Amino acid sequence: MTKAYTDDHAAAGIKAPLPAIETWPNQFPGYEIEIAVPEFTSVCPKTGLPDFGTITIRYVPDKLCLELKSLKMYTLAYRDLGIFQENVVNCFLRDIVKACRPVRATVTGEFESRGGLSSRMVAAYEKTEHTRQKIRSESRRGR
Predict the structure, then answer these.
(1) How many Å apart are CA 49 and CA 41, to the nearest integer?
(2) Which fold has domain 23-140?
(3) Which of 110, 103, 73 is nearest to 88 (CA)?
(4) Is the dihedral of CA 123, 127, 132, 133 positive or negative?
(5) Which of 8, 38, 85, 100 is at 20 to 30 A from 75, Cα to Cα?
(6) Quick one: 116 exposed, middle or buried, by C-beta within 10 A (0-12, 13-18, 19+)?
(7) Confidence (pTM)
(8) How far out from the chain centre does Cα 140 lie?
(9) What's the distance, Cα to Cα, between the start and end of the chain in Å?
(10) What is the mean pLDDT of residues 118-128?
(11) Rounded CA gap, 124 and 43, in Å?
Protein backbone atom coordinates (compact mmCIF):
# COMPACT_ATOMS: atom_id res chain seq x y z
CA MET A 1 0.00 0.00 0.00
CA THR A 2 1.29 3.44 -0.96
CA LYS A 3 1.52 6.10 1.71
CA ALA A 4 -0.98 8.84 0.82
CA TYR A 5 0.79 11.63 2.67
CA THR A 6 4.50 12.35 2.30
CA ASP A 7 7.06 14.03 4.50
CA ASP A 8 6.86 16.98 2.07
CA HIS A 9 3.14 17.29 2.80
CA ALA A 10 3.84 17.19 6.54
CA ALA A 11 6.44 19.98 6.36
CA ALA A 12 4.64 22.11 3.77
CA GLY A 13 4.31 25.75 4.70
CA ILE A 14 6.25 25.59 7.96
CA LYS A 15 9.19 27.60 6.63
CA ALA A 16 7.21 29.81 4.24
CA PRO A 17 8.16 33.49 4.33
CA LEU A 18 5.36 35.38 6.09
CA PRO A 19 4.96 39.09 6.86
CA ALA A 20 6.49 40.21 10.14
CA ILE A 21 4.19 40.71 13.10
CA GLU A 22 4.93 44.17 14.46
CA THR A 23 4.63 45.21 18.10
CA TRP A 24 4.22 48.30 20.23
CA PRO A 25 5.27 48.97 23.86
CA ASN A 26 2.87 47.63 26.49
CA GLN A 27 1.80 50.23 29.05
CA PHE A 28 0.17 48.04 31.72
CA PRO A 29 1.06 44.77 33.49
CA GLY A 30 -1.07 41.74 34.28
CA TYR A 31 -3.88 41.59 31.75
CA GLU A 32 -4.87 39.22 28.96
CA ILE A 33 -5.58 40.04 25.32
CA GLU A 34 -7.79 37.85 23.15
CA ILE A 35 -7.83 38.21 19.38
CA ALA A 36 -10.24 36.22 17.21
CA VAL A 37 -9.72 35.58 13.50
CA PRO A 38 -13.13 34.14 12.53
CA GLU A 39 -12.52 33.95 8.78
CA PHE A 40 -9.15 32.19 8.67
CA THR A 41 -8.35 30.25 5.50
CA SER A 42 -5.46 28.14 4.30
CA VAL A 43 -5.09 25.27 1.84
CA CYS A 44 -4.57 21.54 2.40
CA PRO A 45 -1.08 20.78 1.04
CA LYS A 46 -2.17 17.42 -0.36
CA THR A 47 -5.58 18.05 -1.87
CA GLY A 48 -5.41 21.79 -2.53
CA LEU A 49 -8.84 22.16 -0.91
CA PRO A 50 -9.44 25.18 1.31
CA ASP A 51 -9.52 24.92 5.09
CA PHE A 52 -11.79 27.35 6.94
CA GLY A 53 -11.64 28.06 10.62
CA THR A 54 -11.36 30.39 13.55
CA ILE A 55 -7.98 31.15 15.08
CA THR A 56 -8.11 32.51 18.63
CA ILE A 57 -5.02 34.08 20.15
CA ARG A 58 -4.90 34.65 23.90
CA TYR A 59 -1.81 36.16 25.45
CA VAL A 60 -0.56 38.06 28.47
CA PRO A 61 1.81 40.71 27.18
CA ASP A 62 5.12 41.40 28.84
CA LYS A 63 6.88 44.41 27.34
CA LEU A 64 5.28 44.29 23.87
CA CYS A 65 1.78 44.00 22.38
CA LEU A 66 0.91 42.70 18.93
CA GLU A 67 0.06 45.35 16.35
CA LEU A 68 -3.23 44.30 14.78
CA LYS A 69 -2.81 45.51 11.19
CA SER A 70 0.45 43.57 10.80
CA LEU A 71 -1.21 40.56 12.43
CA LYS A 72 -3.99 40.83 9.85
CA MET A 73 -1.44 40.87 7.01
CA TYR A 74 0.32 37.88 8.59
CA THR A 75 -3.00 36.03 8.77
CA LEU A 76 -3.92 36.82 5.16
CA ALA A 77 -0.60 35.34 3.98
CA TYR A 78 -1.94 31.89 4.86
CA ARG A 79 -4.84 32.21 2.41
CA ASP A 80 -3.06 30.43 -0.48
CA LEU A 81 -0.48 28.60 1.62
CA GLY A 82 -0.49 24.80 1.58
CA ILE A 83 -0.13 23.86 5.25
CA PHE A 84 -1.75 21.37 7.61
CA GLN A 85 -4.09 22.79 10.25
CA GLU A 86 -1.92 21.52 13.09
CA ASN A 87 1.06 23.35 11.63
CA VAL A 88 -0.95 26.56 11.23
CA VAL A 89 -1.64 26.67 14.96
CA ASN A 90 1.96 25.90 15.91
CA CYS A 91 3.40 28.41 13.41
CA PHE A 92 1.09 31.12 14.75
CA LEU A 93 2.31 30.43 18.28
CA ARG A 94 5.97 30.31 17.21
CA ASP A 95 5.72 33.64 15.39
CA ILE A 96 3.71 35.38 18.12
CA VAL A 97 6.22 34.33 20.78
CA LYS A 98 9.08 35.47 18.57
CA ALA A 99 7.42 38.86 17.96
CA CYS A 100 6.30 39.89 21.44
CA ARG A 101 7.77 37.39 23.94
CA PRO A 102 4.62 37.26 26.06
CA VAL A 103 4.30 36.03 29.62
CA ARG A 104 2.09 33.29 28.18
CA ALA A 105 0.18 32.63 25.00
CA THR A 106 -2.32 30.14 23.65
CA VAL A 107 -3.38 29.74 20.03
CA THR A 108 -6.49 27.71 19.29
CA GLY A 109 -7.54 26.66 15.82
CA GLU A 110 -11.11 25.46 15.33
CA PHE A 111 -11.53 24.28 11.76
CA GLU A 112 -14.83 23.73 9.95
CA SER A 113 -16.09 20.31 9.10
CA ARG A 114 -14.89 18.73 5.89
CA GLY A 115 -15.97 15.18 5.12
CA GLY A 116 -17.85 14.98 8.40
CA LEU A 117 -14.83 15.80 10.59
CA SER A 118 -14.04 19.03 12.34
CA SER A 119 -10.87 19.61 14.30
CA ARG A 120 -9.58 21.74 17.14
CA MET A 121 -5.92 22.28 17.98
CA VAL A 122 -4.39 24.16 20.90
CA ALA A 123 -0.74 25.21 21.22
CA ALA A 124 0.51 26.95 24.36
CA TYR A 125 3.60 28.77 25.60
CA GLU A 126 4.55 30.01 29.03
CA LYS A 127 7.63 32.05 29.79
CA THR A 128 9.82 30.36 32.38
CA GLU A 129 12.96 31.50 34.14
CA HIS A 130 14.91 29.46 31.58
CA THR A 131 13.32 31.31 28.64
CA ARG A 132 13.80 34.65 30.43
CA GLN A 133 17.48 33.89 30.85
CA LYS A 134 17.76 32.81 27.21
CA ILE A 135 16.01 35.99 26.05
CA ARG A 136 18.29 38.15 28.21
CA SER A 137 21.40 36.40 26.93
CA GLU A 138 20.22 36.67 23.30
CA SER A 139 19.47 40.36 23.82
CA ARG A 140 22.97 41.00 25.11
CA ARG A 141 24.41 39.47 21.97
CA GLY A 142 22.36 41.83 19.82
CA ARG A 143 19.93 39.24 18.45
Answers:
(1) 10
(2) GTP Cyclohydrolase I, domain 2 (3.30.1130)
(3) 110
(4) negative
(5) 8
(6) exposed
(7) 0.87
(8) 26
(9) 48
(10) 95
(11) 23
- As a whole number of angstroms, the distance between CA 81 and CA 74 comes to 12
The maximal CA–CA distance of the chain, rounded, in angstroms, is 58
pLDDT range class, residue 1, cuts 50, 70, 90: low
Region at 101 (left for phi over 0; alpha for psi -120 to 50; beta for the rest): left
pLDDT tens digits for range 18-51 = 999 999 999 999 999 999 999 999 999 998 999 9
Four-point Cα dihedral 39, 32, 95, 20, nearest 10: 80
Structural domain boundaries in the chain: 23-140
Question: Catalytic residue positions?
Answer: 44, 51
Mean pLDDT of 6-13: 86
